[in-house]
Predict the structure.
Amino acid sequence: MMNVQEEIDKLTVRIDDIQRQIDQEEQGGSEAKANSLRGVQVALINKQTALINKQAHQIKILSLLHSEQVFDTHALSDALSSSTENFKKSKLGEAYASDFKASRGLPFSGFGLTSHCPFFDPTDIDSDLGGRTTTLHSFFNKTVGEISTALAGENPNSIAAKLKQTIIVYNDLSKVAETSISVKTSCLGRNLSIQNHHLDMIMAFVPQLQSTTLSKAGGKLMDKNCSIGIASEGSIPDGYLKDSEMNVRGVFEVTNGTDAPAEGIRQGASSASNVALCQLQHGVKVDDVVVPVISSNGYLMQFAAVVMLKPSFPMLVMLSPVLDLTDDTMLLESARLLCCVKILASRPLIFHRKQVILAEIPRLTLAYSTREYHEKHMVDFFASTGSIQTSLFHFFKVMTRLHRDTESKLYTVFPYCVREFKDDVHETALLFPNLSIYNYRIGLPKLRAQRESFLKHCKQAISCFHQAGVVHLDLYLSNIMWREISDVEVQLKFIDWDSAIFINKCHIPETIQERLQGRRTTVRNKSLDMDIKKGLLPKGPSAEAQLKYFDVSLIHVLEANLDDESFQTSEKHILDTSCVKKQEEFIRCD
């Protein structure tokens, strides 16, 4: 069988050959024959373009299986843009355009995304900042024992055996249709479609799943009272997850055989935002809204969920990387997550207030509170590389490392998500909890006992960060916030982690390298300075200690200047100026 590249090359030869014939006919004065040949050439070019696109899909799937699986948030923003534009053109969009824009509404500001890192749980980052009682971790990280108890003896192993029977394998990566409307005979000699022969088979052991394969009647979002959101009210997901009261709890999307599951996640995220807003409308608390999104192409599966920021801003969280169902380990993980979805859908929604009048919803739709959340725009974000996407991914990897370390987690302020603007990177922003409403402030406390507590926790925190393998590299007093616990005790939170790096990595990103060279006064030996100039991290225990000195130097300055009144101001500029001056004085003396 000829592979795709061979077909593309063969078409290239034919297209070039026809171009030579066209040139000959034009030179001979036969314009009619030349035009006829042009028509043939256009048809071949279109065929070649289709093959190139098919090849791109194959490369995408293979790269997902064999490389680090990172979700492309720009691709999601692009995919959402068409539904966003349709929304803005609708009567509802026109009527409330000014409200949406004023409240940072989604049609003007992108989706809330945490998918730069698939294993980052933004619902589990604010336990002492008015945090959630339930987290995504509590929903989707259930053990086999917990699942067996909740599902009356059913377990991931039994689900995995059933899920395995639904896998559609196509060794040549030929396109297996999404629906039965235009099926293709696969390499197995069967007429297959992902909906009919994969999704509908999963329904047999996930009774909460209802497919729209056989009938689209009643399958529109508007038929489920989910008209408001990113997706148009006429959208029909491939499948709905429903509870016993027939409330929609989640969305299942399938893609054709050569698309990665990320394509379905994008579609499902739009519909899930409508479901999430519907739950809010009917009185579900914002922190209790969790809408699973499942996507599959027949043998690759991926899980995500839409949750909400206050009052009503949808945020997509990746729950898994792409999972290859032909791999036993990944198959079992897919089965475990399906079990967790079944448990979620089996629990009734809890309504905490009366149903909201529909007319009130648009003013809340797709908006987040600028009181609850702090925006850090990309113009203020220290990019570790020339690419914002790569820099954000590096940043989320650092956040994940600190989040997984129990001690470091207590001292770190984590972002909820990235709010992306499709066409303006400078309007893209990270959303953090607003610490000021929880009485956090900058500058040293006025009371001596509290300042001693500040210094004690500062030492403990920096030690934890370094043990976790992370160096902050931008520690000033303005990047440490505190609040009073008592007259002798304070609580600290460290912010602005965008210049942080991993100690055990061998390369310093270029922009961070420049920042370190700009702070050369803090470099205490020539070998370390030379390593930094080369863009390399230092080697050996002694050199590692020198790198940590970028953070530790603040401790030495605080110990020597704990009673300095210039350190007790809440003015960032004055605080930074005083802090930098003292650090330089200390280093020169040292």
